[in-house]
Amino acid sequence: MRRSLLFIPGNNPAMLQNADVFESDAVIIDLEDAVSISEKDSARNLVKNFLNSYRLPIEVIIRINGMDTDFYQADLEAIVSNNIDTILLPKANPRDLIKLDQILSKIEQKNGLTKKIGVIPIIELASSILDVREIATSPRVNGLLLGAEDLSSDLEVSRTLAGDEIFYARSMIAISCRAYNIDAIDTPFTDVRNEEGLLADSQKARGLGMNAKACIHPNQIDIVNKIFSPSKEQIEQALRILKAFENAQKEGKGVFSLDGKMVDKPIIERAKKTIDKAKRFGLI
Amino acid sequence: MKNVLNRFVPRGYIPFQGSKTIINSSKRKLIPEVYTSNANKLCGSLAEVFDKLNITDGMTLSFHHHLRNGDYCLNMVMQEASKRGIKNLTLAPSSLFPVHAPLVPLIENQTVTKIYTNYLNGPVAKTISEGKLKELLVMQTHGGRARAIEAGELSIDVAFVAAPAADKKGNANGVDGPSACGALGYAIPDVKYAKKVVIITDNLVENLDYIEIDEKYVDYVVVVDKIGEQSGIVSGTTKITRDPVALKIARNTAQLLNELGLIKNGFSLQTGAGGTSLAVASEVKKIMLEKNITASFASGGITAYFVEMLEAGLINELWDVQCFDLEAVRSYKVNKKHYGMSSSKYANPYEEDVVVNKLDFVILGATEIDLNFNVNVTTDSKGLLIGGSGGHSDTAAGANVTIITTPLIKSRIPIIKKELTTISTPGEDVDVLVTERGIAINPKRTDLLDKLQNSKLNILPIEQLLEISYQYTGIPEPIKKSDKVIGVVEYRDGTIIDSIYKLGED
Question: Mean pLDDT by 10-residue block, N- to C-terminus, for chain B (506 residues)?
Fold first, then answer.
């Protein structure tokens, strides 16, 4: 369960040093777009040595180079260890995900990993939208990340502040993730100085069922965490519902009402989820 | 000789004994104010002033720093002194900036042999760090300078006062004219107690609507083409930082202040002008708006951000000793609730009703802090002079809660040290250190620790914060210090809190 995932360029020591300073739920160390081709080797070495030296207390995700490049295998060889949790795969498709699972299994075995590395595919091709159910159920996948910039290129449409062009993609990802109980992670908001825009964009994503958002600047984390956390009022209401449910159970009632409204199983389940989230994020 | 903090004190100076020891056990010393008997004040040039005042070898000349890095006056006066071959001058500028680089050769050729100041950076600072000033540099605090002047300890022969507006009788202010710089708070003790006072202006007017410096103190008025560059007033960064580490520190600081109950109706505050300080102010403002409360006053050097809060009704009064930007200059001129104050009213330890003592909290910076919360703002970790206390020690001593905000690591150097390069402010007056990786509370403030018992903030012993920084930087090798003392850090009571050493050879 995540709310905020912070991208950090894999070739920037000062930013790596502060990776866990901000309150993101996960950090995505980027070996792909943030690193120019001439720096791929040095970034890989930097990240590997950094992770060997510092145990980050949050989820560590590595965005490797796509499986259509010459770099992804070296990325995986260098980076897969107990120091990381998840691989973020660009331009994901079902075939590559099966291949990635096989490679990861081999490296895990070879390096004696004590944990299984997860995978978050990036949905950034029109074809991936069509394959999203298959991608969501591929091995190791525990979340999907919408890559709206590349998706818009693929669709040959412009990105807009309103985001109508990604409405379907967001909805598709959100529904698929909910169906398979994995994280629906929204695309980053790229105008890092526009806090109001970030707020509106996050609200829209959440409204469509996304439960997390990638951030490309630490200053975005606070807003994203706020939007994707249950509010104080929601937590209070959920606690009241669960308390009323507990009382109803003691009294042997199957159905009960609160504030004049009938409370049934979906409402109770939702209240439980809210409280789980609140506990997970240290809100209660 | 060592002082109570175990720091070396050169012979002839009084060692520091604790922040309140001398102040609580002694009375204010005041020499009489000096009034002029001169009626014909207008001079055609600085040369004429030098002739009339017979400025000669060994005199002490003072200056204020309200034009900051835009000041032309100190250089103008020193050029005249140099032209005349005057030697062994003592200078007492309230601060020195890079613009004062022309002083460097005058230090080297002993036109200037001693300097008293509160803050310095740039080429002059480097020259002094290299050991080129003949006598010891004396770094005072803003309040300490006012105290030393009124007590006659820092005896000024001639105070040269750059004034953005003046009349021929010698009345002056800082708010009118092309070089307006706002409040002239640091010049006030010089004007009252210097043996002679010279106003230097580029804006001679018939009448002044507002008089900050009274003619009764002023001996001469000299008109020059330009006293300074207004754009040079702006103090470093006066905009809220975008640096995410600094913003996190600011958020944590505001949350801490809130949990300590310090953001309450009628509270008072002071922050510096730097980006992090303003970010703290911005976070505090958010809490104020949420709670619908107002602050009674903010003090110190004033920036546009505080002007905005005053105009929005969030702060009732500004107490301004110097304006840090042009928006503050504008406000100081027009807003009746934007008061000026002398450096004495601001920070003199003996002043009755001194402003720093009324502060609920102050947010300050540090270049180094040790495990006893002693703070260095005078030198960098190599010993190079890069600043000075200014009002640091004064506000730390006065405010109820003194908070240092700083990243744990700057340029790969840990900020927490086992031993400081230079002590500027004693740890007994420093209560909290806020960094991006945790907050340390001075153990002597058990009252604060009690209030924070159930806090979700990451509160750690300062020793643990040091260990965390070592995880990233390793343990730094000690930097070779020269044995040659080139200056002293004078605490606000006139005692010596530390010595300053010549830069070590690299």
Answer: 97 97 95 96 97 98 96 98 98 98 98 98 97 98 98 98 97 96 97 98 96 98 95 73 92 97 97 85 95 97 93 97 93 97 97 97 96 97 94 98 96 92 98 97 98 95 97 88 94 98 82
- Domain annotation covers residue B1: no
Q: Tell which residue, B494, B489, B197, has the closest CA to residue B348.
A: B494
Q: Is B49 helix (H, G, I), strand (E, B) or coil?
A: helix
Cα–Cα dist A230/A281, whole Å: 9
Residue B15 forms part of a structural domain: no
In a domain, residue B6? The reply is no
The tokens describing B427, both together, are: 């740890």
Residue ranges per structural domain of chain A: 4-227, 232-280
Q: What value does the CA radius of gyration of chain A take, rounded to a whole number of Å?
A: 20
Measured between CB atoms, which of A18, A54, A193 is closest to B245? A18
For chain A, give the percent of residues with pLDDT over 70: 100
Residues 6+ apart with CB under 8 A from B146: B188, B189, B342, B343, B344, B346, B347, B348, B351
pLDDT digits (tens, 9 = 90+) for B450-464: 999 999 999 999 999
How much is the ipTM here? 0.83
Nearest chain B CA: its distance from A203 CA (Å):
21
Size of interface A-B (CB pairs under 8 A): 25
Q: Which of A8, A18, A22, A223 to probe by mutation at the B interface, max B CB count within 10 Å?
A: A18
A218 inside 8 A of chain B by CB: yes
Backbone angles phi, psi at A150, to 5 degrees: -65, -35
**Backbone phi, then psi, for B308, in 5-degree steps?**
-60, -40
| Bridge partner list, A271 | none
Inter-CA distances, B384 with A112, A244, B377, B421, B486, Å: 51, 67, 11, 10, 11
Architecture of domain A4-227 in this structure: Alpha-Beta Barrel (3.20)
Q: Concatenated DSSP letters for A145-193? A: EE-HHHHHHHHT----SS-GGGHHHHHHHHHHHHHTT-EEEEPPP--TT
Same domain, B379 and B425: yes
Q: Helices (H), strands (E): how many in chain A?
A: 12, 10
> How far is C-alpha B152 from the chain's CA centre?
21
Task: Tell me: do B344 and B260 sit in the same domain.
Answer: yes
CA dihedral (B404, B410, B414, B417) in degrees, to 10, reads: -50
Smallest CA-to-CA distance from A88 within B6, A234, A96, B132 is with A96
CA distance B228 to B494: 32
Pairing of β B315-323 and β B338-340: parallel
B437–A21 C-beta distance less than 8 A: yes
HEC string for B63-87: ECCCCHHHECHHHHHHHHHHHCCCC
| Torsion B244-B250-B254-B256 (CA) sign | positive
Residues A105, A110, A116, A122, CA torsion sign: negative
| A17, A193, A222: residue with CB nearest B472 | A17
Listed in sequence order, the residues at least 6 apart from B230 whose beta carbon sits closer than 8 Å to its beta carbon are B67, B70, B178, B179, B180, B181, B326
Single-letter residue type at B160? F
Q: Which residues 10-29 in chain A show a CB within 8 A of chain B? A: 17-18, 21-22
